[in-house]
User: What shape does this take?
Amino acid sequence: MSADSRIEAITKRIVERSKPTREAYLDRTRRAISKGVHRSTLSCGNLAHGFAVCSPADKAALAGDVVPNLGIITAYNDMLSAHQPFETYPALIRQAASEAGGVAQVAGGVPAMCDGVTQGQPGMELSLFSRDAIAMAAAIGLSHNMFDAAVYLGVCDKIVPGLMIAALTFGHLPSVFIPAGPMTSGLPNDEKSRIRQLYAEGKVGRAELLEAESKSYHGPGTCTFYGTANSNQMLMEIMGFHLPGASFINPGTPLRDALTKEAAKRALAITALGNEFTPAGEMIDERSIVNGVVGLHATGGSTNHTLHLIAMARAGGIQLTWQDISDLSDIVPLLARVYPNGLADVNHFHAAGGMGSLIKQLLKAGYLHDDVRTVYGQGLAAYTIDPKLAEDGTVSREPASEVSADPKVLTTIDKPFQSNGGLKMLTGNLGKAVIKISAVKPERHVIEAPAIVFHDQQELQDAFKAGKLERDFIAVVRFQGPRANGMPELHRLTPPLGVLQDRGFKVALVTDGRMSGASGKVPAAIHVTPEAVDGGPIAKIKDGDILRLDAIAGTLEVLVEAGEFASRSNATTDLDANEFGMGRELFASFRRIAGPADQGASVLF
Assistant: This one.
C-alpha cells in the first residue's frame, strides 16, 4: 500500500537531510551486530558474575551463545499508578522465556517520575532531563553484553522517550516495548477540569478538589486522559515497537498478561539466533518516524512530542524538524476526540475501535507507510486488528471494524473531526514556537492583545487571585526553558487562564516553557526558541507590547517597530532559587549543556 504523495515527499526530504547521520548510525549498528553477543568469550569471572543467581539449567544455557537471553529494563515503582503493574512482569517474562527455550534477566531499573505529582513543584524542574537520565540508566543496564534482545517496561511521559533513545543506542539488539495499560475510567475528565476551575476561582475548597482528583486517578494504570503517557503508547504501537493491539488493555486482566507473555516470546524469536532477526536500529527508519508523527496528529496527541520525537529520531541518526511535524499536521486529519480535545478517555477510544481501527483508516487514505518493519514481523496492515483472549489463554486477533463503535470518539477518514492535526509551528520576530489547537475553538485561533510579562508561573497565579487579570491579554511566562530551569510543564496555568477565557476575555499564553500533554482550550505558543536565558527575543517583551498569535497563518509576532525592539536590552531574572533543592543541584551540568527546544532539548545530541 503506497503512501500519499505529500507524505512521501516529506519522508524523502527527511531521508535526504538525514543521510550523513543515518549512514554513520547504521554503520555503527551493523558493526555492533557483526560482533554479536559474546557471552561465550567473556572471561570466566565476567560470566560467573553475570549468571551467579541463575538456576543450574539457566547457567548451562548461558554458558554459550546458543540460547537467547532477554534483558528486561524496567521503570517499575509502586508510587506511580502507571508503573505499579510492572511489579509482576519480570516473573511473567521469565516464565514466557522459559517456555520459549530462552532465559530472561532484569538488566536494570530506570527512574520514573510522575509529572502529575510534581506539577508546580520544584521536582518538575528535573522532569524533562529525566528522559536523558533514563536513556543513560538503561544503557548501563544493557552494557554488560549479556543479552540477545531487550524488552522495555515503561509507560509515562519521559520514560518511554528515554527508553526508546536507549533502544536505538543499542540498535544492534531487537527491542520490544511492553505497556501496562490505562486504569479503568473514573471521574470524567471534563468534570475534573470543572472542579479545578472552581477551585481556582475559590468556589470550592481543597477537600472537594482532592476528592475529585482522587476519583479521577483512582487505581493501577495510566491516567486516562490523552496526554503524553497515552500518546507514548500510541506511538510505540504505530511505530511497530508494540505487538498489535497492546497499547490500551487495562492492567490486571488475563488479556494484559497474555500480551505480556507473547511480547517476551516474540522478543526471543527475533534475535540473531533465529530466522527473523530484527535489530531495532534497522527496524526503525524515517518511514517509522513519519508514521509516529502522523499518529500524533490523527489523535491530537501531546505537544511534548515536538521535543521527544526529535530526540528519539536523532538517537537513530534521523533528522526530524518542527517544520516536518507542522507540515504533516497540515495534511493529516484529526480522527480521534479524546480528552482534552473531547470528552472521552482512552478506554472509550479503545472501545470505539482503538488503534486497530485508527491505523486501518490512516492506511486506507495513504497517510501511513505500510512497508515498514515491526517487531511483529509484518507491515502496519498487521496492526489493523482488535485483540481478544483466546480460549487457551493466548492472544487472538480479529480484523478491526471499518465502522467506529462511537463516531463521537473515533471517526472515519471521510468524516474527520477537522481537516488537520491541529499542531503547528509558529515563526516570527519572537523566534519559533509550537501550538496545539485541536482543543481550541476556531474563534480563538488568532489572538492579538497586550502582553503581561511574568518570570514564573506563581507570579501569574498571584495576579489572578488579586483580580489583576480581568482583561484581554497575552501572558508571557519566560525563563522557563531547558537552560533556565529545566523547562518544567506549566500546567497549573491552565485553570486560571481557562477561567478568564470563560469569562469572555481574549487570553493566550506565550512561553519558552512547556504546557504538557494535556494542553487544552487556551491558545498557547509554547517551547519558544531561542529561550529567554539565551537572549531570545522573548526576553525583550515589555508589559503592554501588542502581541499577535496567529495559529492560522503560523506566526508569532510582537507588534513593535523593529528598530526600537532590537535596541532594547534583554530582561534578566534571578534563577538562584532554581539551582538547589529536590536534586536540582545534581542537574546543573544538564542545564548548562541542554540543546534548544527545536532540537529536542536534549543533553545527548
Q: What stands out?
A: The domain at 423-599 is CATH 3.50.30.80 (Glucose Oxidase; domain 1). The chain has two domains: 5-35+67-184+219-399, 423-599. The mean pLDDT is 93.
